[in-house]
Amino acid sequence: MATVALNWASPSTRTPLIENLVSGVDRYNPNNVGILEDYLYHQIRSQEYDCLANLAILKLYQFNPDLYNPDVVINILIKALTSSPFPDFNLCLSLLDERPVNQNADEPDPLPSLLPLLTTLYNLLQQCRFPAFWATYRSEEAEALRDNYTIECVGFENAVRDIVIRAVKAAFKRIGSARLSSYLDLSGEEMDTYVEKLGWSIDASTGVVTVPPNLDNNPQSTVVQESIQLPQLTKIITHATATA
Amino acid sequence: MTQQRTTLWEAELEEDLQDVDVNLAIGTYGQNGLYDDAQSRINEATLIAAQQQMAQAAFSQVPDVVKRFIVHFHQAVLDNNLAEITVAYESGWNRLTEKFYAKTEWPEAEVIAPLVNDDQIFLILYRELYYRHVYSRLQPDIDDRFHSYENSCELFNYLLNSDGPVALELPEQWLWDIIDEFIYQYQSFCVWRSKVKSKTDEEIVLLSEESQVWSSYSVLNVLYSLIQKSKINEHIIALQEGKSAEEITEIVGEYGARPLYRMLGYFSIIGLLRVHTLLGDFTLALKVMENVELSQKSTFMRVTACHVTTFYYVGFCYIMLRRYPDAIRTFVNILNFILRMRQYHTRSYQYDQINKTADRMYALLAMCSALSPMRVDDNISNIVKERYGEQFTKMSRGEEGLPAFEELFLYACPKFISANAPPYEEGDQLALYMEDPPIEPAQRHLSLFLSEVRAQAPVPTLRSFLKLYASLDAAKLANFLDADEEEMVQQLMIMKQTSRSVSRFDTEHDKGLLDGQMASTSDLDFVIDGNMVHIAESTLGRKYAGWFIRNTEHAQRVFDSLRNSPLPIPPKTNALASKAAPESASAAPRTGGRTVAWGGVKA
């Protein structure tokens, strides 16, 4: 079974062409940037995600500043926002070298103005401050981000909700629906359908949502006993056979 | 003074060099090249003659013992005599450096060329050492930096673009040092290049003209070429699949079959790990390592410096991937190794370097342990406490520990570089650049790391409260913490998140360093049930195995020595035993003939 990290490092949706670029030396060829950028827009449209392929774009930008395309960078960061539990967003920022301010006044670079906002949104998600995330995301300040970028990114809001669900699933056995609703930024029927789809149940009278048991929300006090491995005893056994 | 030193040296070297006629070696030079260019214009000939004269003057300054050393060294390289090369490389060079060149350059390659019959390959190797000495002991100027780059290019060009693999053989240690130094000089150049303010006009002109010198592409190109030529990845995979020696020879081809290419290929993988880390690409750094086994049993790990470097960078990448448990395991693994090997390294010339890296890893380990508390080996955790106990305490306290994280990060992180040069070729942009210089790479990576640390800042306080209860009301807990209940519940979710991490621990190890499963990393777990927090703490049972194993082994030793002791009464057995002793002592003689120790091995 593929592990969570393998799915991240090489998602099953990656085509052989992209795999070749991600894993081979062709990733350094500036002529291939178009293929990777097309692949990014494919991810944006079809709710796929391939972090390493996107990092390969940023790598090409790092080595070839002329290729730099702010729209692509912003889209990469938006995809990376929703990739909990991996710190993809910061991994992407690591590759964004400081660049001189764009001198071209006709085509202003949107990244410098959006980057602080994106970083704030990432930190809010990291800190599980979901209601604050939605408030910021829906604010006037984020209008440019919503209207020019996230609107194109199919399923962006649901991808954020997936992060919420992951966090809630791990920490709660039961959660008040008002609280959950503020985390998911859903209410009324929308909320009910969403919860139902997850297979969770709402008690209509108390408004309490029950989260099915999973590996993380069922803590047990245990006493960890040591288990002795055969290799620890090799020396003794070898000696015993040698002297027997 | 010099006179005395020289005699001392001659005394030691005389016998070893008796079969090499230094004068003969120099004598051949006169015919060798001066009149080759018979067609050249007169002033060029004069120029050469003048240079010749200067070179001869410089040549006469070279102490005899150094001349002998170079002649012998050259001979060892010509013979592909690894033992002698190793002695000259590890001992002779360093000793002569201490004696004569502690504060100045070694003689230029052109000056000593007559000693080695103008052997271009040896001169490239000599320059490799020459520049490495400049970088480590002196201040390299722009010419040194450009020329060391040219020399590296010449060396790699010779290795990669000759007709077929070259016959040269070099000790593994030297091969590692070549790659290591190549990357160090690249990194050093990038740092130096980014400091615009200290550049003279002349330097700015040179930098704008030669933008390809030490470019990231050229460095990566060398490393990837060595990896591909040597087919080292195919080699490692074949080894892991248990292929036979013949099959492997078949797979790796004529280059990969030679130790020189094989090792350079392997070291280039580690080199990539390092370069990608320096450039801030932590995923790619671990990805290029996907075939490499991080095991001490690997035959590729014989060069200690390489071994240590590998673990340092792998561990650091795990930190930046927020995989603290994996980072901890990586560091503990290598630090244990360094502790065990310490007795063998004290005399190595790399001892200092290894110790410095180890200290930085203890600092990184302290950081990781504060972020993801884990039981580690007692020896190691004691050293962490001893060296970084104060910072560790601060870091375990959340928000107020941030300065301690910053301090240790900046001390222990790799020397990050930015991939691109300041705009030297465009005057007005350069002025802008100087006015508003970009944030230094290390500061950029620091702030990203701190943002991860800050996100989990509330955890230590929460943890200390939760530890006191089996269950309590969320509102009550919020009250204790003097916090808003909703905010506190969100903090609990952070705590849950940080107690889970992706880790390689339970995965199949042949899937590479990026592989991993979600694992629980904390002994304290909890769940929120409506408004109640239920807490469960896991404890470690007492461990007995170690105690019994140690004592069993001890009992076996006692039993053995008792059984082997002579019985006191019959004197015959006694005599036999005492006779056996000297025999066994003489049965372990020194093997092999005399080896040349330049300057003798210090006892």
TrEMBL record, chain A:
Residues 49-227 form the PCI domain. Its main location: cytoplasm. GO terms for biological process: formation of cytoplasmic translation initiation complex; regulation of translational initiation. InterPro entries: ARM-type_fold, CSN8_PSD8_EIF3K, eIF3k, PCI_dom, Transl_init_fac_sub12_N_euk, WH-like_DNA-bd_sf, WH_DNA-bd_sf. GO terms for molecular function: ribosome binding; RNA binding; translation initiation factor activity. It is found in: Cytoplasm. Component of the eukaryotic translation initiation factor 3 (eIF-3) complex. Component of the eukaryotic translation initiation factor 3 (eIF-3) complex, which is involved in protein synthesis of a specialized repertoire of mRNAs and, together with other initiation factors, stimulates binding of mRNA and methionyl-tRNAi to the 40S ribosome. The eIF-3 complex specifically targets and initiates translation of a subset of mRNAs involved in cell proliferation. Belongs to the eIF-3 subunit K family. This is Eukaryotic translation initiation factor 3 subunit K. It comes from Fomitopsis schrenkii. The lineage of its organism: Eukaryota, Fungi, Dikarya, Basidiomycota, Agaricomycotina.
TrEMBL record, chain B:
GO terms for cellular component: eukaryotic 43S preinitiation complex; eukaryotic 48S preinitiation complex; eukaryotic translation initiation factor 3 complex. Keywords: Cytoplasm, Initiation factor, Protein biosynthesis. GO terms for molecular function: translation initiation factor activity. The keyword Cytoplasm applies. InterPro entries: eIF3l, PCI_dom. Residues 330-542 form the PCI domain. It comes from the Eukaryota. Residues 575-588 have a biased composition (Low complexity). It holds the Pfam family Paf67. Residues 570-603 are annotated as: Disordered. GO terms for biological process: formation of cytoplasmic translation initiation complex. The keyword Cytoplasm applies. It is found in: Cytoplasm. Belongs to the eIF-3 subunit L family. Component of the eukaryotic translation initiation factor 3 (eIF-3) complex. Component of the eukaryotic translation initiation factor 3 (eIF-3) complex, which is involved in protein synthesis of a specialized repertoire of mRNAs and, together with other initiation factors, stimulates binding of mRNA and methionyl-tRNAi to the 40S ribosome. The eIF-3 complex specifically targets and initiates translation of a subset of mRNAs involved in cell proliferation. This is Eukaryotic translation initiation factor 3 subunit L. The lineage of its organism: Eukaryota, Fungi, Dikarya, Basidiomycota, Agaricomycotina.
